[in-house]
Amino acid sequence: MHKPSSLNDYIIAFLLSLFLTLVLGTYLYLRRGFMLDVPVGIDTLYVPNKVLGNVGMMIIALSFLFGPITRYFNRLDTFIGCRKEIGIVGAFILIFHGVISYFYLPKRYPNEYIDFSSLEFSAGLLGAFVLLFLFIISFKKAIEIIGAGRWWFLQRFGLRVVVLFTLVHVALLKWSGWVSWFTEGLPVSKELVLTWLPAVHLLTFLFIVWVVAIRIYESIFLFQDFGWKTKEISMDPILRARGRSFFITSFFVLLFLYILIFLRFLF
């Protein structure tokens, strides 16, 4: 069902984005040692753009997580109405991140270096186009043109495609760096001060993988149809208990992985 846009929900989405921006911005500032006062040879918007990229990815992942959250935790039901606005804000943040990456980071990403035929960059570009498309059809008029059934399908699976493209984009771009950091460590440099801190992309990536794991679990063991049809499981006490148990257990697994990563320097 189409939900009319709400100013209050946009305010909540903005405040959530602002909170994540402050948290991740502080983390990156500590790890890098700079924000806008960059060392020679580094683009001015290099770190702010990293903040935007990670905030956008987390916001999109949260919008994908809102269904399970409200199914298993009644006190959070009131926030389900913010999902549309949170998704739209996250989409614009990621699109803005892409624009900055292409036009305003000539030292880090020269245009001739960005090969959109490669899987890592094409995944990011396609994800941005899908996000823009989902925003365009988020208005009530789109339902009348497309039809409610097709509109629901495009919204539901469009977000899944975006999350998949995001995982591919980040993993292919950052995987080698993560492996080098975890196995060998990185030297202190003008770009990196606290080398023992893990890359923020790695933390974001694991969060998105956790969200995807929850949705896959629901699709296979609860909905049993991979989301092709709507099905309400909140009123089924057995299915709801199973889903809640998996949600909580997998969350603690995620926390354990974070602890292992942050304690990597002790190994």
Assign a percent range to the helix content. 55-70%
Oligomer: single chain
Strand content: under 5%
Helix tally equals 8
Describe, in plain words, how this protein is organized in 3D.
There is one protein chain. With 267 residues, this protein is mainly alpha-helical. The chain has one domain (7-266). It is 69% helix and 0% strand. The chain has helices spanning 7-32, 46-72, 83-103, 119-136, 140-146, 148-183, 200-223, 237-262. The longest helix has 36 residues, at 148-183. The radius of gyration is 20 Å and the shape is globular. The protein starts with 6 loop residues before the first helix and ends in a 5-residue tail after the last helix. The mean pLDDT is 87.
How would you summarize the topology of this molecule?
Layout: H1 7-32, H2 46-72, H3 83-103, H4 119-136, H5 140-146, H6 148-183, H7 200-223, H8 237-262
Helix pairs in contact: 1-2, 1-3, 2-3, 2-6, 2-7, 3-4, 4-6, 5-6, 6-7, 7-8
Features:
single chain, globular, mainly alpha, 267 residues
Summarize it.
With 267 residues, the chain is an all-alpha fold.
